[in-house]
C-alpha cells in the first residue's frame, strides 16, 4: 500500500508541476496533504486499534507469528511513510525551483511543503505510539524475571561473589526472557523500528532495576557484582541494536561506581571539578541515598559530605 500511494502521489505531483501552473500545483499539494492526513493515516492505524492485539501475540501456535508480522508491517509502514514524505517533499522542491522562479510562487509552494514536513513528524508520532503499545504487551512477559531480582542479595562475601561468577543469579534469565518474548521481532521490522523497539524495552528494564536496586543493601563486593551485572546487560543489548545503549544504563552504572568505593569520601574524587568527562545523572540527594545502601558506610560520614 505504501509504495503504491507514494508512487501515485509522486506521479501526480510531477504532472502538476509540468503544467507550469502554480494553482494546479498548490491544489494538488493540498489534495495530497488531505489524503495523507486523513484516509491514509487512518488506514495505517487501523490494525493497531484491534482489541486484544497483545493477547494474540502470546496465544501460541501459528497465529502468533501471523499477528506479529501484521503488527510489524503496520509499524514498518509508518516508518517508511515518514521517510517517503520527506523524499516527496525534497523532489517537489527541486522541481519547483526550476519551473517557478517568481519569489511569490516559491513562497506559496514553500508553505505547502512545510506542511508535508509536519506530516512526516505526524507519522513518527503515530509510530512511537504504536511502538509503545506493542512494548506494553511484551514487557509484562519480562516483568516476572525482573521482579525476582528483588529477592537477590547484594551483601556478598568473597565466597558468594565467586559463586555468582559461576552461577549468575538473574542476568542471564532476564536476557533469555527478552530474547524469547521480544527479539523475535527483529527479522520482521525495519532496522529503525527494531532499534526503537529494543530501546523502549530497555527503558522499561532500566526503570524497574533502578527502583529495585535502591531498595537493597550492598557490601563492596555487592557493588562490584552490580557493576558486573550492568556491564553484561550493556554488552548484550549493544549486540541487539545499532544505536548506542550505554547512555540508557548511565544511572545504574553510576550507582555501581558509588557502591564500589573504598570509603565515603572517595566520591569527591569523581564529583564536581573532579568529574572529568563524566556527567552525573544522579542528583546529590540520590548520591547520598546510594552511599547509604552500603552496609559499612556510616550515616554521619555521608551527611558530612559537601556535594
TrEMBL record:
In what residue span(s) does the Conserved oligomeric Golgi complex subunit 4 C-terminal domain sit?
73-289
* Superkingdom as given in the UniProt entry: Eukaryota
Database matches in Pfam families: COG4_C, COG4_m
Domain COG4 transport protein middle alpha-helical bundle positions: 1-48
Q: Which InterPro entries match?
A: COG4 (IPR048682), COG4_C (IPR048684), COG4_M (IPR013167)
Protein name stated in the entry: Uncharacterized protein
Origin species: Stephania yunnanensis
